[in-house]
Amino acid sequence: MSDSPAAAPAGLRNYVLVTGAYWADTVTDGATRMLVLFHFYNLGYTPFAVASLFIFYEVFGILTNLFGGYLGARFGLKTTLFAGLTTQIVALSMLAFAPPDWLVVAWVMVSQALSGIAKDMTKMSSKSAVKLIVPEGASATLYRWVAILTGSKNALKGVGFFLGGLLLTLLDFQTVLRLLVAFVGGTLVLAAVLMRGGLGQANRKAKFGQMFSRNGAVNKLAAARIFLFGARDVWFVVGLPVFLASVLGWSFWQSGGFLALWVIGYGIVQAATPGLLRSRVEGQHEPDGRTATILAFVLAALPAGIALGLRADLAASAVVVAGLIVFGAVFALNSAVHSYLILAYTDSDKVAMNVGFYYMANAAGRLAGTVLSGALYQWGAQSGPNGGLIACLWASTACVLVAGLLSLLLPRHSGPRSKPIRLGDLGD
Fold first, then answer.
1. Where are the domains of the chain?
2. Angstrom distance (rounded) from CA 405 to CA 110
3. Would you call 272 helix, strand, or coil by DSSP?
4. Minimum mean pLDDT range among 85-94, 360-369, 417-426
5. How many CB atoms lie within 10 A of CB 152?
6. Which long-range contacts (CB under 8 A, 24 or more apart) does 37-43 make?
7. Model-level pTM?
8. Does domain 9-419 have CATH number 1.20.1250.20?
């Protein structure tokens, strides 16, 4: 079979629509994150209180990743896509149209919980829809399309970070959120009007128990993933934005702009990982457990180096900006290798369920990092202006080291699968 995609016009049309919907949700999600973070920190909330606003976002992200593949299989991707967009509209409306007195921690936490559900529902729908335009057996094409989708998602999330910081500089909190409600609402209407037919077939025989992996390599990779993403979010979610605004004196749009550029660069490196590592999806030189281990131990040196630089009172702006740019590049390589290995370790008849389990571990790492980011920053800041970020960076170092140690347990080669991966195994 040829490796060039060929799809029916309706299938291609639906793929474009579902991908566009995912992009719209991604931009909105990134913008909302910056809006909530900066708005409530500016109101005098402590770093830990700000972090608590996102706890339910991550908790419900875990649950949605666990249930998402199952729901997509049971009810079809069109249903889960529209449900995700509708949920995002409700979440944004809770903040955009609520009386100011309602904008307290509990209310915002519920709103963020719904945003977490919406984000992962649309993500699951868009990634599964790739199969609509890639012919069976075209694994290289599948890899490229997934890489493009993942890289573009990260880039657009970065755009959302910048947009959120910029709009909060120009407009008030609720006005910006109302604009985002209109944006997502327009996307939902457009998708509903233009989408033809269904998007995947409902499979009433899908069983929830299949979501839990019994594959040893997958479980070890998922454990390493928890600590890898905990290592990122322990400084990224609260510690770094607060440090940029309160210690370095950066404006909202400057802080959002830096975070945006970091995420965009991360997406670019992630998409280019096969070329950068000189590996390929098929053949004898694909990434394996050793690749993940080496990258993890290299990564661990970077937050430690930044922390030592800040402790030595070197120029904080230069140390943080340069150090985190390098961290982002190495982290992207590590993350991309993980994303490949989850497919390499999975048999064809368990792909969808194992991937759902894997991304649940990803969300668990983000949750742990989010909570620790606020708590450690607040604790460390008692020792000096740089102390909060230094505490977060040492925690990041520890998390990456654990991820590296767990990676030592991964197979040194993917090994032959009992069955090859086919596109039809990716879930309806």
1. 9-419
2. 36
3. coil
4. 417-426
5. 18
6. 37/238, 37/241, 38/164, 38/165, 38/168, 38/241, 38/245, 38/252, 38/255, 38/256, 39/168, 39/173, 40/108, 41/241, 41/242, 41/245
7. 0.75
8. yes
